[in-house]
Design brief:
alpha+beta; D-amino Acid Aminotransferase, Chain A, domain 1; 7-stranded antiparallel sheet; 5-stranded antiparallel sheet; 8 helices; 26% strand; binds adenosine-5'-triphosphate; binds magnesium ion
Length: 322
């Protein structure tokens, strides 16, 4: 096995740099935005570690999905000049994360499964029936929005009606977003099923393009923004009281929870094998969903990204060397 090479951060600097938990982002001229996806893994709203090849999987898989759903809603993709980089339309993000759930699941205290098991039946404004098993199907896919937290904070659950009445999004546009989200989720479910995965839930982000029109931004149907479960083992595992075989961030969340970590204080270190398994599953998901071989980008990634971006960057914004 070769050395584990991960991309933690980009060492070059450009004006207008914004650093998220997973992505670096820069505003470019002509209402464009550059997004570089690193290998950082975030959960509990914290960066917990690095997963080899994750940034490339996320960037390339999202681009693949955007292309396959462009008939449903316009997306922010302009070009993919590098395995880890995206040139996007610079949008004004809407302040709501649009989560669609088909399954009763989740492991954190605020997730729907623990709340349902504690007896709650009114969740995100929906009355759920009794008798749904752990990780079982909801009566239909439900939109459970959260308001986007400021940096360092936690997202807050809200409801479809609350978003409509709050005025943070134009009501007509919010109706359109809900329709689009359910349609995207249906497409995602179908394609995932063809590759042997259950799409349990996902999160969409929308924004306003410079002309004011609706555009889907960020990422789509990636293992960071979604829960993907192996379909073939699911029924047997649930019957035996085991959780799904997850091809996403959940194994890291569970491994952290198993050593007592809930998002506060010092981040425990997990065995290398846990991170290696996460990496292998991210890559396997990419290959099975897209039907393409995963070809890791040349190393060092930082230099490669810099040279692939050369043609996209303004003469004034030439990266300074690290
Ligand atoms: N086309 C776009 N225009 C403007 N902003 C965008 C666009 N696409 C994505 N973004 C924003 O860029 C940021 C991406 O960074 P990142 O994924 O690291 O976000 P994060 O929310 O900090 O982390 P996490 O994904 O773990 O919640 C997000 O704030 C997202 O809303
Ligand atoms: Mg994000």
């Amino acid at each position: 096995m070769g050395a584990v090479r991960t991309l933690e951060r980009i060492s070059f600097e450009l004006p207008g740099h914004v650093e998220g938990k997973v992505r670096h982002s820069w505003k470019l001229p002509d209402q464009k935005r550059l997004l570089v996806t690193t290998d950082r893994l975030s959960a509990f709203d914290r960066v917990l570690g690095l997963v080899q090849n994750k940034g490339q999987v996320l960037n390339q898989l999202a681009a693949w999905w955007f292309e396959r759903t462009a008939d449903i809603v316009p997306n922010h993709v302009i070009a993919v000049p590098d395995p880890n980089a995206l040139i996007a339309v610079d949008a004004t993000p809407l302040p709501v994360e649009v989560i669609v759930r088909a399954r009763l699941t989740g492991s954190t205290d605020t997730a729907v499964l623990p709340r349902y098991k504690a007896g709650e039946r009114l969740l995100y404004g929906y009355h759920l029936p009794d008798g749904i098993e752990d990780h079982g199907a909801l009566p239909e896919p439900l939109i459970t929005p959260t308001t986007k937290a400021e940096k360092g904070g936690h997202d807050r659950p809200t409801t479809v009606d609350e978003v409509a009445s709050s005025g943070v999004i134009d009501p007509g546009m919010w109706t359109e977003i809900q329709k689009v989200a359910l349609e995207l989720f249906r497409r995602g479910t179908e394609i995932a099923a063809g590759a042997g995965f259950v799409l349990a839930d996902t999160k969409y982000e929308f924004g306003l393009a410079p002309d004011g029109s609706l555009v889907i931004i960020d990422e789509m149907h990636t293992p960071d923004s979604s829960r993907f479960w192996a379909a073939d083992s699911l029924e047997e595992r649930l019957v035996n009281g085991l959780g799904p075989e997850a091809f996403d961030k959940e194994p890291i969340r569970l491994a952290m929870a198993a050593v007592g970590y809930r998002g506060e204080g010092t981040i425990p270190s997990l065995p290398d094998e846990v991170w290696a398994t996460a990496s292998a599953r991210y890559v396997e998901l990419y290959e099975r969903i897209t039907g393409l071989a995963f070809i890791p980008g040349a190393q060092p990634a930082d230099e490669r990204i810099r040279s692939n971006l050369a043609g996209w960057l303004d003469a004034d914004a030439v990266p300074v060397s690290a």
